[in-house]
Amino acid sequence: MLDLSARTATLPFMENTDAVRLEAVHKIYGRGGGSVEALAGVTIGFPKGTMTAVMGPSGSGKTTFLHCAAGLDRPTSGSVTLDGREITGMREKALTRLRRERVGFVFQGFNLLPALTVLQNITLPLRLGGHRADDALVASVIERVGLAGRVGHRPAELSGGQQQRVAIARALVTRPAVIFADEPTGALDTRTALEVLGLLREVVRTGGQTIVMVTHDPVAASHADQVVFLADGTLVDRLDRPEADTVAKRMTNLGAWGRS
Ligand SMILES: Nc1ncnc2c1ncn2[C@@H]1O[C@H](COP(=O)(O)OP(=O)(O)OP(=O)(O)O)[C@@H](O)[C@H]1O
């Protein structure tokens, strides 16, 4: 197991082990007096084959961070390296292709297409990328997320947990280097959330994928190898091998749920 505690963001010889790396990333929305600095100089690397939870109070910059790291939004300054490629200066077309082929996304609201079957939803990224679906790979992904008996169903015929499994399968089908998850368990009950977190953990363990997950939930965060905490657009803290209680205390200290 990779010892995250022995690693610092500044060790240059470790950089090639990072699936994603942000260097001095600033993001400013708007101009002049009404501008908001959502990210105020963030430097961090996410080592390959690890799962990281990103936490912080509302408005601390988590979504902005995820969007900049995933190439969905461009930083105002600083650089982002994704799967070994510097993406901040990349043209839109190349960036779209990199995202489609090397990045998977899992969202709170599942974001499945209601008119498509489970199988069609899962294979959509391949078809959008102009690739023929590799039947054996698709079958193994479906098996892995436990949806073998459901491939002909539409999303509305599935439970929330099953819909999130479809979204995870869709994220896995291109064999991405990194999966970005935004509150992946936010719409699920506790038991289903634990199943989905177990599945994400398994993806990291067996597939070597890297997961970066924004969450408000200390229990969800405790499934990660590390938790990083954002406050006012800055990384302020980090926990390795986090436990839910410790995560909850740090969040309270950051004022996330008000002080008692
Ligand atoms: N498109 C935008 N235009 C202007 N300001 C924005 C925009 N998006 C976000 N912000 C501001 O940037 C800051 C960070 O927002 P962000 O959504 O990244 O925070 P967050 O930690 O994800 O919040 P939450 O937990 O409430 O979703 C906030 O002050 C927010 O109001």
TrEMBL record:
- GO cellular component terms, semicolon-separated: membrane protein complex; plasma membrane
**Keyword field:** ATP-binding, Nucleotide-binding, Transport
The entry's protein name is: ABC transporter
Which SUPFAM superfamilies does this entry report, sorted A to Z?
P-loop containing nucleoside triphosphate hydrolases
What superkingdom does the record give?
Answer: Bacteria
Q: Native species of this protein?
A: Planotetraspora kaengkrachanensis
Molecular function (Gene Ontology), one example: ATP hydrolysis activity
Any Pfam family from its record, for instance, is ABC_tran
ABC transporter domain location is 20-257
Q: Record's SMART domains?
A: AAA (SM00382)
